[in-house]
Specification:
It is found in: Cell membrane; Membrane. The protein is α/β, with parallel strands linked by helices. The protein contains 23 helices and 22 strands.
C-alpha cells in the first residue's frame, strides 16, 4: 500500500533527482602549457557569475603566477595520508561531498592516489563519483596520459607513461578545451624558470622539451581533439535532424591471437577508431572448434580484453576452423570498415612451407573492408617450423608408413607377372594410384615414403634398361655439361684472337706503311726536296708513328685490364688540368676537323683519379667524338658536380649509336658507325670504360638533344686528406 503526504504525493516522488555533474577538461600537449592557470581563470569567471566554486586540489608546483590565481577562491583543506614513513596530502573526497559546492576544481586528472589513502586508486575514479553526486568538475589533463596514446608518447619522448586515463572517460566530458602554445614559446617559458626549478631547466630542454618532442605532442593533441570535435558535430546533426550530408561510421575490428603484439594492435586500432566521429572499436579472437589453440595465452587474452574495455571497445570470441574466413565473416556481419591485424610471427621457412598466411588470405577476402597490417617486435620471430595438429588416430599413423613400403612392392610383383600386357604409362599410373591410397591411410609423410619406393621400383623393374638405375646417364650428362663449360672460354678466346689478328693485319699496317713511305721518300737519292716538303714528310711520318704508338698502348692497357695487372695512383686532379694534354695528343691537323668547345671546367671541384689514365680516357672519348662529328658542328666538353661526383660530358652531333648497340660499342674491336676503316682498332671505348671503372667511375652513353651521342664520364669528388703533389697535382698523404 502506498502512503501519501498532505499534498497527495507519494514518498518516492518527494526524493530529489540528482542531476549528474558536468565535466570540463583543460587538455594540454605537455606540462607547463598553462592548464592549471586556465582552470583557475575559469573558476574566477564562474565566481563572478555567482557560482559556488571550491578549489578541491590545485597543483601549482611552486609557480608564483599560478599560486597568485588562487587568491579569492575557497580552498578545500587537503587530507593527509601516511605511506611508507611519509606524510602525503591528497584530495579530501568525503569533505568535498559533504560541502557539495556547485563547481569543484581538481587538477591532474591522471594522478594516482596514495595507496590506502582513498576509496579508489586513481583520481579520475574519484572524479567519477563526484560527478555522480551532481557536482560539476573542472580538471586538467596532458595528452600523454590518454590510454590510447601512452605507447606512442613513450616512443617519441623515451619516457614511460605510468599514469593513464581511459579515453572513453575523457570523451564523455561535456567540454574539452585545448590549452595550446607553440613549442618555442613553451621552451622560452621553461628557460625563464616558469615551469621547473633552475637546476632542472637545462636537462628538461635537452630531453623531454626538445623541439621535436613538443611538435609531435602538439600534433597528437590536435588530432585527438579534432576527432572529439567531429563526434560533437555528428551528435549535433543527429539531434537536429540534419541529414543532407551522409557520414559513414568507422567500425574498426582488431584481430587478437593472445600473442605479445596484442596491446600494440589494440592501441593502434583505438587510435584509428578515434580519428572519426562515432568510431567504434571491436576486438575479436578466433578460437578453433576442436579447442586446439597452440601458443594461445589465456592470461594474455584476459589482459587484452581488459585493455579493450578500458579504451571503450567491445571484446568478442568467435569459433571457426578457417581463421581468415571467420575473421572476414565477423567483420562483414558487424559492418566493419577497417580491419587491423599484426604481421605474421612466422619465420621465412615456415611461410615457405605453409604458403600464404592468414594476413594475405584476409586481404584477398576483405573486398570493401580496409585491412591494416601492423608490424611489431615479434614479427618474424615465431616458431622455426610449423606446428601440425594431430588429427589421425595412432593406428593409421603406424599403418601408413608400412603401407608406403609394402603396397608398391606388392604392386611390383603383380605387374611383373603381367609383364608385356601393359605399357610403361599404365604401369606408372598404377603406382600413382598406390601412392594416393597410402596418402589416404597415413597422410602426407606416408605418401612421401610410398612415392620414393614406387619411383625406385618403377625405374629398376620396368624402365629400360631393365635391372639397373639411370644414375650413370645422369653422371654422363653432368660430365658433358662441365666439358662444354670448359670449352666455351676457349672458343671465346679464339674468337678474340681472330678479331685481333684481323684488326692488327689492317690497322697496324696502315700507319706503319704511311711512316715507311714518308721516310723512304726522304731517303730517295734521286729526289731533291725543298725544306717545306721535307718538313711535311717528317710531320706525316711523325703523325703515323704517333698513331701507331697509341694503338700499341691501347692494346697493352687493354691486356693489363683483362689480366688485372693495371697499377693505379689515385690523386686529386681537375678536368681543367687533364684536358689540354689530352687534346694535344690527338693530332687533329685537318681543316674539316670539328671545333672543340670547353665549358665550366674551372667551376667543378677536384676529382679523384689517376691523371695519366684520366688523360687517356678523355683523349679516347674526345677523339671518338671528333671522328664522328660533322666538320661544321663543334664537339662540346662540359663539367658539373652532382651528389659527391664530378661528371664530364663529351657531346657530338654525329650519327649516334642505336640503343640496342650501345653496350656492344664497349666491346673490344667494335667500330660501330665508323665512316672509314683506315684507322683505329675499335679499342677506344672499351679501354675508356675499363680505365674509368678501375678508377671507381662510370662511363655511360646518352643521346645528344637534337641528334648525336653524349658520353658521360662520372668520377668521385676527391676525398679529404689529399695534398698537393708534384707539378701542382694533389696526391694522397
Amino acid at each position: 500500500m502506498t502512503t501519501t503526504d498532505a499534498d497527495g504525493l507519494t514518498a518516492a516522488a518527494v526524493q530529489p533527482v540528482v542531476r549528474p555533474g558536468r565535466l570540463k577538461v583543460f587538455l594540454g600537449a605537455a606540462p607547463g602549457v598553462g592548464k592549471t592557470y586556465r582552470m583557475l581563470d575559469e573558476a574566477h569567471r564562474r565566481v563572478a557569475r555567482g557560482a559556488d566554486v571550491v578549489a578541491g586540489l590545485a597543483e601549482c608546483h611552486r609557480r608564483r603566477h599560478t599560486e597568485a590565481r588562487l587568491d579569492g577562491l575557497e580552498i578545500l583543506p587537503l587530507a593527509g595520508h601516511d605511506y611508507r614513513g611519509g606524510r602525503y596530502a591528497g584530495l579530501d573526497r568525503e569533505a568535498l561531498l559533504s560541502r557539495r559546492p556547485q563547481v569543484v576544481l581538481i587538477d591532474e586528472l591522471a594522478h594516482t592516489n596514495v595507496p590506502g589513502g582513498g576509496r579508489h586508486p586513481k583520481r579520475w575514479q574519484d572524479v567519477e563519483d563526484i560527478l555522480a553526486a551532481g557536482i560539476d568538475v573542472v580538471t586538467t589533463l596532458n595528452i600523454q596520459h590518454l590510454e590510447s596514446l601512452s605507447d606512442v608518447v613513450e616512443k617519441i619522448t623515451g619516457v614511460p607513461q605510468r599514469e593513464t586515463v581511459p579515453d572513453e572517460f575523457v570523451r564523455r566530458a561535456d567540454e574539452i578545451e585545448l590549452v595550446d602554445i607553440p613549442p618555442e614559446g613553451l621552451r622560452r617559458r621553461m628557460a625563464h624558470g616558469n615551469i621547473c626549478p633552475p637546476e632542472r631547466i637545462d636537462a628538461s630542454l635537452a630531453h623531454y622539451f626538445r623541439p621535436g618532442n613538443l611538435i609531435a605532442l602538439r600534433e597528437l593533441a590536435l588530432l585527438w581533439l579534432a576527432g572529439r570535435v567531429d563526434e560533437a558535430l555528428h551528435k549535433y546533426r543527429v539531434e537536429h535532424g540534419i541529414g543532407e550530408v551522409w557520414e559513414t561510421r568507422e567500425r574498426v575490428v582488431v584481430a587478437l591471437t593472445g600473442g605479445p603484439e596484442g596491446e600494440t594492435l589494440i592501441r593502434r586500432a583505438a587510435r584509428i577508431a578515434g580519428r572519426s566521429a562515432g568510431g567504434e572499436l571491436l576486438a575479436v579472437h578466433i578460437a578453433r572448434s576442436d579447442a586446439l589453440a597452440a601458443g594461445v595465452s589465456h592470461a594474455a587474452l584476459a589482459a587484452q580484453r581488459a585493455l579493450v574495455e578500458d579504451l571503450g571497445g567491445s571484446y568478442h570470441s568467435v569459433v571457426g576452423d578457417e581463421v581468415p574466413t571467420a575473421l572476414v565473416d565477423f567483420a562483414t556481419a558487424e559492418n566493419a570498415t577497417q580491419l587491423v591485424l599484426g604481421t605474421s610471427r612466422r619465420r621465412r621457412l615456415e611461410r615457405f612451407l605453409t604458403g600464404r598466411g592468414i594476413g594475405e588470405t584476409v586481404v584477398a577476402l576483405s573486398e570493401d573492408i580496409d585491412v591494416h597490417m601492423v608490424t611489431h617486435e615479434r614479427a618474424g620471430h615465431g616458431r622455426l617450423l610449423p606446428s601440425r595438429r594431430r588429427t589421425l588416430p595412432t593406428s593409421r599413423l603406424v599403418a601408413g608408413p608400412v603401407a608406403g613400403v609394402v603396397l608398391p612392392v606388392l604392386l611390383t610383383l603383380a605387374l611383373d607377372r603381367m609383364r608385356g600386357t601393359l605399357n610403361l604409362t599404365s604401369e606408372a599410373l598404377l603406382f600413382l594410384v598406390a601412392v594416393v591410397g597410402v596418402a589416404c591411410i597415413g597422410g602426407v609423410a606416408s605418401a612421401v615414403i610410398a612415392a620414393l619406393t614406387a619411383a625406385l621400383l618403377l625405374n629398376y623393374w620396368f624402365m629400360p634398361p631393365m635391372g639397373e638405375f639411370h644414375v650413370g646417364a645422369a653422371v654422363e650428362r653432368a660430365r658433358l655439361v662441365e666439358a662444354a663449360a670448359e670449352v666455351e672460354p676457349i672458343k671465346a678466346a679464339d674468337r678474340l684472337r681472330t678479331a685481333l689478328l684481323r684488326a692488327v693485319s689492317h690497322d697496324l699496317r696502315t700507319p706503319l706503311a704511311g711512316a715507311l713511305a714518308a721516310i723512304g721518300s726522304l731517303r730517295a737519292p734521286d729526289v731533291d726536296f725543298s725544306e717545306e716538303d721535307r718538313a711535311e714528310l717528317l710531320e706525316s711520318a711523325e703523325m703515323s708513328l704517333n698513331r701507331l704508338n697509341r694503338l700499341v698502348e691501347n692494346l697493352l692497357d687493354l691486356s693489363r685490364l683483362q689480366a688485372g695487372a693495371l697499377s693505379l695512383e689515385l690523386r686529386a686532379t681537375t678536368p681543367e688540368e687533364v684536358l689540354p694534354p689530352a687534346l694535344e695528343s690527338l693530332d687533329l691537323p685537318s681543316a674539316d676537323t670539328p671545333r672543340i668547345d670547353l665549358q665550366n671546367l674551372e667551376t667543378v671541384p677536384a676529382l679523384q683519379a689517376d691523371p695519366p689514365l684520366l688523360e687517356r680516357v678523355l683523349a679516347n672519348l674526345v677523339g671518338n667524338a671528333v671522328r664522328h662529328a660533322p666538320g661544321d658542328r663543334p664537339v662540346l666538353v662540359t663539367a658539373s658536380a652532382l651528389a659527391g661526383r664530378v661528371e664530364v660530358r663529351i657531346a657530338d652531333r654525329g650519327p649516334g649509336i642505336a640503343a640496342d648497340d650501345r653496350e656492344r660499342a664497349f666491346e673490344p674491336f667494335q667500330r660501330l658507325g665508323d665512316r672509314d676503316n683506315t684507322t683505329g682498332l675499335g679499342l677506344g671505348l672499351a679501354l675508356a670504360r675499363g680505365l674509368t671503372e678501375a678508377m671507381n667511375g662510370t662511363l655511360t652513353p646518352e643521346d645528344t638533344p637534337g641528334g648525336g651521342l653524349t658520353m658521360v664520364l662520372s668520377l668521385p669528388v676527391a676525398k679529404d686528406g689529399l695534398e698537393p703533389g708534384p707539378g701542382g697535382m694533389l696526391s694522397t698523404s
